[in-house]
Amino acid sequence: MNNDKKLTDKQEKFCQLCVELNNASEAYRKSYTADKMKSNTIARRASELVKEPHIDSRIKELRGEHRERHDWTIDDAIKELEEARQVAKAEATAAPMVSATMGKAKILGFLIDKSEVKSEGSISIDISFK
């Protein structure tokens, strides 16, 4: 964190929830005792909190981490699976090679997992995952 001021546990929770929920008022409700507060009061207090330099700094830091963590694409997954497949092929290990190939096929939509769910009586449901 760039700011020297230490956050309280509630402030840290507020910052985390601001990033997760992308809603300062809802983050405030879940971080502080606000069940008897009016919506306007919650919105005002949440707005005041996000303007505090140490809170703002922490939220920006968390958003950066969040962006890095979620900056993974299908292309990245395909590339990693292909690398794993090539290693397995070079080592002549069929099972990991097949597993990597199947993973790629699923991501690309060539395979659809189907399972049949049955219950007592005559209900049968076919569920497809795509």
Attribute tags:
130 residues; mainly alpha; two-stranded antiparallel sheet; 2 strands; 64% helix; 9% strand; elongated
Outline the structure in words.
The chain is mainly alpha-helical. The chain has 2 domains: 62 residues, no CATH class; 40 residues, no CATH class. A hairpin with a 5-residue loop joins strand 1 and strand 2. Helix 1 runs antiparallel to helix 2 and helix 5 runs antiparallel to helix 6. The mean pLDDT is 84.
What's the SSE blueprint?
Elements: H1 9-21, H2 24-31, H3 39-51, H4 53-70, H5 74-90, H6 94-107, E1 113-118, E2 124-129
Antiparallel strand pairs: 1-2
Short description:
It is built from six helices and two strands.
Helix fraction? 55-70%
Q: Using only CA atoms, what is the Rg?
A: 24 Å
Total of DSSP H or I helical runs spanning 4+ residues:
6
Number of strands: 2
N-to-C terminal Cα separation, in Å?
40 Å
Cross-sheet strand order for the largest sheet: 1-2
Structural class: mainly alpha
**Average of per-residue pLDDT values:** 84
**How many structural domains are formed by the residues?**
2
Strand content: 5-15%
Largest sheet: 2 strands, antiparallel
The coarse silhouette is elongated
- The helix-strand sequence is HHHHHHEE
Extract low-pLDDT stretches. none
